[in-house]
Amino acid sequence: GVLSADTVNAAVALNVLGKGADIDADGLIKSFAKAEKKAEDGLTLGQYGRFIMALTAAGIDCTKAQIGGKTRNLVVEMEKLTADADPTVEEAVYLLPVYGNDNYRNISGTTPEGLIEIILDAQGENGFFWADEKAETYSIPLTSQALLALVPYLDDELVDKKVSDEVADAVAAASEAERVVTNGMSYRSRSLPNANSGLLVDVRTED
Fold first, then answer.
1. Calpha distance 65→83 (Å, rounded)
2. Do 42 and 36 form a contact (C-beta atoms < 8 A)?
C-alpha cells in the first residue's frame, strides 16, 4: 500500500515518454485503497500528493477518481488536510507538482506560492535541501525532488536563481562526473530542459 518515490518517478517518466498507457492504473487505485485502509489516522499530505501524481500520469482525473465504487475528489481531500497542519518540505515537494496541473489549480483557492516558499526555506547555503533544521546533513533525494517541483516556476526570478545557480552547482559538485543519478534520472549542472506533460516535468539529459 505504500507508494514509494521510485514508483511515482517511474510513472512520471513513463508519461513524459508517451507511455502513460503502460502504467497500471488499476494497481495504483488498489494500492491507494490499501494504504488508506492501513493508515489509522488517514493518509498524509505527502502520500496524497504521491498518489495524485502517479494516478494523473496514468491518465486518471483525480478530481473524479473511481475508488471502491465511489467517485472521489482526491485533490480536495488532500487540501482539507492543510487546514489542520502546514505541510513539511518533504510533503511540499510532492504537493507543488499537483498544483502545477491546470486541472487541479485553485480548486479551493490553494495556490503554489506558499508551497514554493516552504521548499525554498529548506534550502541550505550550499544549495542542497534539508528535511528539517535538526537534520545532520542535506538530502540528495529531497534536493532532486525539490528540483523537479520547482522547474516549472523558473519564470519566478527567485526560483530561477535558486534552481539554476545554487541547486545546479551543488548537485554538480556532489558527483565526480558532475551528475547525480537519482531514481533513474540524471541531473546535470546548467542543464534543465523541461517538457511539461500535465503535472510532469522532464529534466533528464542525454548520457
1. 22
2. yes
What are the pLDDT digits (tens) for 22-74?
999 999 999 999 999 998 888 888 889 889 989 999 999 999 999 999 999 99
Give me the residue label for grid cell 503502460.
22
pTM score: 0.70
Strand spans (E) along 17-80: 65-67, 70-72
Q: Are strands 179-182 and 65-67 parallel, antiparallel or unpaired?
A: unpaired
Give one DSSP letter per residue of 112-143, joined into a string: SHHHHHHHHHTB-TTS-B-SSTT-SS--HHHH
What does the block give as the cell for 94? Answer: 510532492
Between 8-17, 51-60, 88-97, 128-137, the lowest mean confidence (pLDDT) is in 128-137
